[in-house]
Amino acid sequence: MYASRTTQFIVGIFAILGIIALAILSLSLGKVSVFPAAGYTLYANFDNISGLKTNDQVQLDGVQVGKVTYIGLDQKNMRARIEMHVDQGVQIDADSIASCKTSGLIGDKYVAIALGPSERMLRDGSTIHQTESCFVLEDAIGQLINSSGSSSGSGGSSSSDKGSKAPSPDKDHTPATPEKK
C-alpha cells in the first residue's frame, strides 16, 4: 500500500532533475544568461530607436558580437541612450557608426556597427558618437501619403490641367469669355 523509502527517494530524485531541466530550458529559451559573458560596455545616443528592445543583437559585419543591455533616456540631451555589451576580443574603433537596423521588412531590430578608419579603439564605458536612427515604416508611409496628397492639389487633378481647379457646375454660372485687346 505504501511506497518503500527507496521508491520515494527515486521519485524525489526524478522530480528534482525535472525541475532543474525545466529551469535550464526556460533560461535558454528566454535568452537569459546566468553568468554574463566576458566583454565590455559601450554606449550610443540615438534620435529614434523605435522597436529596439533590451537583449536585441549587436552585430558587426552581420555577425553577433554582443547585445543591448539597457535602453533609457539621456536627461542631458534628451535622446535615447542604449547600453551594449560587446564580447571580449571584438575591437571597435572611435570612428565607428552604430545604426539601428531591421531584420527583414517588419522584423526584429538590432544595432549594426560599421567600423571606421580610426586606429584608436573604444574602451569599456566609451560612447559611439556617430549613430543612425531606426527606420520607422509608419513614418515613411505617413510621409508618402502626405507628400502625394499635397502634390495632387484638391483630390485628383491631373497633370494636364496644371493644378487649376475646374469650377463647380451650378445654374447661375456662365463661362468667362476672354477679353479682346
In words, what does this structure look like?
Helices cover 22% and strands 28% of the residues. The chain has 181 residues and is α/β, with parallel strands linked by helices. It has a domain at 39-137. It contains two helices and eight strands. The longest helix has 25 residues, at 5-29. The model is unreliable at 153-175 (pLDDT under 50).
What would a concise description of this structure say?
This protein is an alpha/beta fold and 181 residues long. Helices cover 22% and strands 28% of the residues.
> Can you count the helices?
2
Q: Provide the low-confidence segments as ranges.
A: 153-175
Which secondary-structure class do the elements indicate?
alpha/beta
The major beta sheet can be summarized as:
8 strands, mixed
What is the radius of gyration computed over CA atoms, rounded to a whole number of angstroms? 30 Å
Q: How helical, in percent, are the residues?
A: 10-25%
Assembly context of the chains: single chain
Extended strand count? 8
The mean pLDDT is 81
For the largest sheet, list the strands in their spatial order. Answer: 7-1-4-3-2-6-5-8
Q: Tell me the distance between the termini.
A: 121 Å
**Principal-axis shape:** elongated
- The arrangement of helices and strands along the chain is HEEEEEEEEH
Beta-strand portion reads 25-35%
Q: Which SSEs are present, and which pair or pack?
A:
Blueprint: H1 5-29, E1 39-46, E2 57-60, E3 63-74, E4 79-87, E5 97-102, E6 109-114, E7 126-128, E8 130-132, H2 137-151
Parallel strand pairs: 1-7, 2-6, 5-8
Antiparallel strand pairs: 1-4, 2-3, 3-4, 5-6
